[in-house]
Amino acid sequence: MSIAAEPDSAAPRRPAERPPADRAPSTGSAWTSEGRVRLRTLVLLRWLAIGGQSGAALFVQLVLGFDVPLGAALAVIATSAWLNLFLMIALPSQRLVKEWEAALQLAYDVVQLAVLLALTGGIENPFLLLFIAPVAVSAAVLRPSTTAGLAALAYVCVGALALWHWPLPWYPGQALDLPPLYQAGLAAAVLIGLGFTSVYAWRVAAEEERLNIALAAVQAVLAREQRLAALGGLAAAAAHELGTPLATIHLVAKEMARGLPADSPLQEDVQLLVSQSERCRTILKQLSSQPETRDVVHERMPLRALVEESIGAHHAKGKTIEIRIGAGDAVPEGAPPPDVRRSPEILHGLGNLVENAVDFAESMVVVTATWTPVEIEITVCDDGPGFAPNVLPRLGEPYVSERSAGQTGGGLGLGFFIAKTLLERSGARVEFQNATTGGALVRSIWPRRAIEARPLTG
Questions:
Q1: Are residues 180 and 243 in the same domain?
Q2: Strand 429-434 with 440-447, pairing
Q3: For residue 124, which of 76, 83, 168, 250 is within the disulfide window of CB 3.0 to 4.6 Å?
Q4: Rounded Cα distance, 122 and 103, in Å
Q5: Same domain, 393 and 336
Q6: Both 47 and 163 in a single domain?
């Protein structure tokens, strides 16, 4: 079967499936200056640091018996406590802090830690690695440029600690003399940890935000499809409720028409009322005859009908769409194709794949549906340029918007991510590759029990 669909300028493409360029973040995250972290989070983290710093200083002084400049150290720690108290009194804890405010607070934490370490051994102090904490927090919630600035500040602090610091608290009458090479190794380890942790935290936060944005789009599309599917049941219910009063109106209008003389000036109006009420009854009868969404007969459809319906909603811009239905090798000869469940996820997902294939096809798209006793497979293949090698490993990620280098046509951006997500939600395994004859090939494979309709019972 071939479907040659004509272009239709009146049918706009669905804007929800591909975000505009100004909304698709280039680095994977939509960073803004309005704030991405609450004040209470920064305050809580600082309270944890205050508790840990105070406990460590008191433990070293009172339990280990080392000579710690306790007064100066506690004064530095108290400065952070006063800052926290001021922020808790002056500002609402639920408030999202602006980016520059969060950067200033984290910069203060870096400097405060540097001063505390300078009093207690500098880079010889094993707590030097705590420089990683504020920079990692920045990488998760602030812009990469801001995080780079904080990392640079931490680097400067580490360098300053290597040049100036008080001796490391140690046993009375003894001095811990670490070789300079070992101290340089400690500093280098912290600096490398800062860079690695910052990049890792930034990438994880960016990927999480990209997925959240894309999944929100998937949910919006699916909700729309479910609302459209529910309209059939709503129409049938409305037809049922309106049928009785409309039948009464129609009966009364006919009685009035019979009771009026033929030459009455009201005869024409009454006849119009009769004809229009009859028309309303016909419309309601058609609506009520459509099966409801939850009807077991309506929920099942032949495999070919599933493919045809998923294609029918998309205009092919003059390209030919060919449908091929066939049984697998393990199917007995003459066995009929299975009936499958009508699923908004499958219909919308396959429709998106076909639409994207049409965007890149030269002249033809082939949709093939095959089945075996255990699986049902639907493939979408086009005669276009195929997937570029650098794009193929990333297919299925959000915002992969080009099929090959230099092509900016239809793209496989958020629309393809939505299609893959919806199909996988229905139980499919989605695979993409380049066909041996050229062009792109996308395979959707379901376990037969996942989408096959239940047998009808009498």
A1: no
A2: antiparallel
A3: 168
A4: 24
A5: yes
A6: yes
Q: Phi/psi of residue 422, each to 5°?
A: -65, -40
Domain annotation covers residue 13: no
CB half-sphere exposure, 428, CA atoms < 13 A: 25
- Give the pLDDT band of residue 180 (cuts 50, 70, 90): confident
Could you tell me if 6 and 318 are in contact, meaning their C-beta atoms sit under 8 angstroms apart?
Answer: yes
Same domain membership, residue 230 and residue 346: no
Per the structure, the count of domains in the chain is 3
In this structure, the answer to whether residues 168 and 79 fall within a common structural domain is yes
pLDDT at 231: 54
pLDDT of residue 118: 92
Average pLDDT over residues 9-21: 36
Domain that holds residue 247: 220-289
Angle at 76 between CA 72 and CA 79, to 5 degrees: 140
Which of 217, 239, 269 lies at the terminal end of a domain, its last residue? Answer: 217
| Bridge partners of residue 301, in order along the sequence | 340
Kindly state the percentage of the chain with pLDDT values over 70: 78
Reported as half-sphere exposure (CB side, CA atoms, 13 A), residue 362 has a value of 7
CA angle, 383 then 389 then 394, to 5°: 100
For residues 228 and 313, membership in a common domain is answered with no
Element (H, E) at 132: helix 132-141
Given a contact cutoff of 8 angstroms between Cβ atoms, the answer to whether 341 and 362 are in contact is no
**pLDDT tens digits for range 393-443:** 777 776 665 554 444 444 445 667 778 888 888 889 999 889 888 889 999
Domain boundary among 171, 198, 217: 217
* CA–CA separation, 140 and 143 (whole Å): 9
Q: Confirm whether 30 is domain-assigned.
A: no
Q: How many CB atoms lie within 10 A of CB 21?
A: 9
